[in-house]
Design a protein that fits this description.
The structure is a single chain. The chain is mainly alpha-helical and 195 residues long. The chain has two domains: 95 residues, Rna Polymerase Sigma Factor, Chain: A (Orthogonal Bundle), CATH 1.10.1740.10; 80 residues, Arc Repressor Mutant, subunit A. 80% of the residues lie in helices and 0% in strands. The chain contains eight helices and no strands. Helix 3 packs across helix 4. The protein is globular and about 45 Å long. This is RNA polymerase sigma-70 region 2 domain-containing protein.
Length: 195
């Protein structure tokens, strides 16, 4: 499928198109970040965050460059943001280490509330997924199994487990965004007529 057709289908929110876009570019994004970030966990997280940024920005893609070039430009911006935030945090806390404890203490009640709300949204999102997707995500992120262990547990091939985990992540991300929109709309300050 050519880039323009794929973009139209992704914007139309077709699951297969989103999955195809993911598999077309996530290996390149992972290689890009893994080569530039020391922490594999951070590199994976930023690759996934970048993919979500790409989905958000895709309606604004104007075609002045190839889709691949445009996606890698977004990846470079995400990388710069990652290092900017890391540098600010390191400078701030190295010059004034007492701030880290002070901030933790000051924010702990608010953070505890936000953490509780986030956990509730995660559980609610997991309940919207098919049993297979919810199971594979639980095995990976709650039980801490590797993809190899998941494959053994589900009695499927490594590649099938990896693919199922990837599809489950995409389904979770999509559903999580929907629950966020619903939660925002249900809040007392939401007014659809305000800009």
């Amino acid at each position: 499928m050519d880039d323009q057709s794929l973009i139209k289908r992704v914007i139309a929110n077709e699951d297969r198109a989103v999955t195809e876009l993911y598999w077309r570019f996530i290996p390149k994004l992972r290689r890009f970040f893994t080569g530039r970030i020391n922490s594999p966990k951070d590199a994976e997280e930023i690759a996934n965050d970048t993919f979500l940024s790409i989905l958000d920005a895709l309606p604004r893609f104007d075609g002045r460059s190839s889709l691949s070039t445009w996606i890698m430009a977004i990846a470079r911006h995400e990388l710069v943001d990652y290092y900017r935030k890391k540098k600010i945090k390191n400078i701030l806390f190295s010059k004034m280490p007492f701030l880290e404890n002070l901030i933790d203490q000051a924010l702990s009640p608010q953070l505890a509330l936000e953490e509780k709300q986030l956990k509730q949204r995660i559980v609610k999102t997991l309940h919207t997924l098919s049993e297979g997707y919810a199971l594979v995500l639980r095995l990976k992120y709650i039980d801490g199994l590797t993809v190899t262990e998941i494959a053994q547990e589900l009695k499927i091939s490594y590649k099938a487990a990896e693919s199922k985990l990837s599809r489950a992540r995409l389904a979770f991300q999509k559903s999580f965004v929907q629950t966020e929109k619903i939660a925002f709309q249900d809040s007392p300050i939401w007014d659809p007529f305000k800009p």
